[in-house]
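dumping the sequnces here before i forget
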Amino acid sequence: MRYSPTVRTTLGFIALALLCLWFADLSITTVDPWRELTRLFLGLVQPDFAAVDFVGVAILRTLAFAFTGVALGAGAGLLLALAFRYRLTRTLCAFVRAIHELFWALIFLQFFGLHPLTGVLAIAIPYAGIFAKVYAEILDETDPHPARTLPHGTGWVSGLAFTRISQAWPHLVSYTSYRLECGLRSSAVLGFVGLPTLGYYLESSFAQGRYGSVGALLILFYLLIATIRLWVRPRLLPFYLIAAPFLLGGGMPIMWDNVARFFTEDIIPAPLRRGEGASGLGPWLSDLILHQALPGLWNTLVLTQIALVLTGALAMLLFPLISRHFTGRLGGTAGHLLLVILRSTPEYLLAFILLQLWGPSMLPAVVALALHNGGIIGHLLGQRSNQITLRADAPSGLNRYAYEIVPRLYGPFLALLFYRWEIIMRETAILGILGIATLGFFVNSAIQEIRFDRAMVLILITALLNIAVDILARRLRAHLRLRHSVQAQGC
Amino acid sequence: MLRRLAFAPALALALLAAPLAQAATFVFTAIPDEDETRLQERFQKVADYLSEELDVEVRFIPVNSYAAAVTAFRNDQVQLAWFGGLSGVQARERVPGSQAIAQGVEDAAFTTYFIAHRSTGLEPADTLPEEIRGMTFTFGSMGSTSGRLMPEYYLRERFGVAPDELFSRVGYSGNHSRTASLVASGAYQLGALNYTAWENEVEAGNIDPEAVRVIWQTPTYPDYQWSIRGDVDARYGEGFTDRVRQALLDMDDPELLASFPREGFIPASNEDYAPIRETGIALGLIDE
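..and the predicted 3d for all of it:
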C-alpha cells in the first residue's frame, strides 16, 4: 500500500521522535513532590495581589518595551523588506531572527547594562528580521498591474506607497498588530535576564517560592494578553507609540568604552587575547566544540524532535475544544480559557513546575514545550476549523473528527507545525537556562562564567542550527505543497 | 500612519540618548541571594543611609544574576557592590585597583551545607559518605561561592573526580532556596547551599525538617564582601574609599543589616580572598 507524501512525512517524523525517545533521558526521579506542589497550587488559587503592589510599574515597562521594540522592528523591517530581493538582506534577516530575544538581551546587557536600549534592541533586532521576511512576502502578493499604469516619471517612493503598500495595507496592519502580542510576551520574558518587566518579578517570586505573588503576576499577565483586542485600537496606536519611549524608565548610563571593549576584547577568543596566536586557537575551539557545542547540539535536536511530535499530537487533541463543530457555547468558552492559559504561560514556568513534579530529566522540558506550543497550534487550528462549513447531514462525534474535519485541516496543521519547528528549537534556549543541557544551557553557563568569547561561538552555532532547520522546514513545505498564510503562525 | 510609524523610532532613539548624561551619583548593587522581590525597597534604605554618611547621592540598582553584578561593576555602572566570594574575585580581576573593603561578621568563616533527602537514608557525618556516588545532586547558581565553587572543590577533593562523573545527574537550581525546595521534593537526592539561606528556609517553615537534613558541612572559607572600584577617590574626592569603608563598618541598624543578612560588617582585604581565587583557578572558573 502506498501512502501519500503527507502521511509519509508524518510517519517519518514520528519514527524519528520514537528513535530520539530511546536516546533521551526521560526518567521520573522525584519521591515526594507534594508538599512543594501543594504550596504552589495554594499560591496559584489564592493570588496575593497585595504582595505585588509594585507591579504597576512593571506592567508599564512591559508595555513600553513591547511598543517601542515592535515599532522600531517594524520600521526597520519595512525598509529591509524593500531590499529583500538581495541575498545579502535575506541572509542578514535570517541570521538576526535565528537568535532568541533572550540572547540578544544577554549580549546587550554586557555593554549597555540595564539600560532601556538593551530591552528595546533585544526585541527590535530579531523582530526586524521577522517583519522583513513577512512584509516582503505580503508585498510580493500584491497585484503588479497598478504599478504599470503609473505615469512616466513617478517617484519610486510615491509609486511604492500608492500601488503596492496601499494594496497590502490591511495585511501589513493586521500582521503588525498581531506581532505586537508576541512583543508583549517577549518583553515580559526579557525580565528573566534582569530587565524590569513582568518576567523579572515572576522569575524572582518563583525562585523564592512566593507562590501567592506568582499567582497574582500570572493572572495579570493573562489579563493583559487576553484583553489585547480591547485596548489596542488603530486609533489609539499612535498615542501609545508616542508615549512608549517616555515610559521605558531610566537605567545606568551607557559608556561607549564598554561597547568598544566588548567588541575588541571580550569576544576575542581567549588564546588570541593572551597572544598565543592561532596555535592556541585550535585546542580552545576543539575543547569548546567537543565538550559543549556537540553535547548541546545533540540534546537540542533530541529535545526539539520529541517536543515537536508531542506538540502536534496535543494540538490535534486540543483544537476540538474551541471548534464549533464539537463544542457548545459553554464548552467553547472553557476550551478558550484553557488554551489561553496554555499558550500564555511561559514554557520556563511550566518546565519548572514539572521539574518539581518529575525531577531533573528531559521530560519536564519536552512536556512544557509541547503544552505551550500545542496550545498555540490548537488555537489556530480551532479558529480555522470554525471557517469550515459542513453539510447538514455530516456525521457527528468521532466520525466527524476523523473523516470531515481532520482531513481538511491536515495541510494547514503540518504547515503550522513546520513553522513552529524552528521556534520550538529557539525556545529550548530558555529551558537551557533552567539547567537542561541544550545549547542554551552552555551559552548561559559561558555568560555566568563571564566568558563572552565562548558564549559568542555557541550563539553563532545556535543561530546556524536554527537557520538550517528553517531551510529544511521550507523545503518540506514546498515538497508537500503546503500553502498557508504566514500571517497566523503564532509567536 | 506609515509616517507616524517611522517617526516613533526616531523619537525613541532621541529619548534613549537623553538619560546618558551622567551625574556624579554613587551607585551600588548587591548579588541576588536571599529575597529578590523587595530588593529595591530594602536596599533603598541602605542607599539612604550611605547617602547621609557620605554626603553624595547614592543609588541602588537591582540585578538578578551574579554575572550581571560583575558586569555592572566592570562597566563602571556601579562603583560599589556586595559580592559573593567568587563573584568578588571575578569582578576585581577585571577592574584594576579595585579592592575588597568590608565583609560580614559571618563571612570570615562561612560554610556550605550538604543536604540530603530522607529517602537516601544518609546520616550526618564528619566526611561525605561513599554512598553518595551515583546519586543525583544539585548546585545552586553557577557563579555562587557557597552553592557551587566550594562544594565542587570539596567533592573533587574527597572523591578525586568531577561532579558529573561522581553523580548520575548534576543540576544547577539557580539559587539557594530552589536548591532547598528541589531536594525537599526529592527532585534531587542531594544538594549544597549557603548555610544562612538554609537556616532562613527552615525558620520560614518552607522546608520540612523531616524530609531533608544536613549531612555534612564544609570547612570554613571567606565569602561575601563589599568591593569598591579603584577610581572612586579620584571621582568622589580624596579618602572616599576609606569613608565608604567606615560607613559600612558603622552600620548598626538591625533593619539595614537584615537585608544582607549579617550581624555587622568587619574590614576585609583582597588578600583575604586569595584562597577563593586559587580554588576558582583550580576548577577552571577563573582564567589565570
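Chain A touches chain B through 71 residues (CB under 8 Å).
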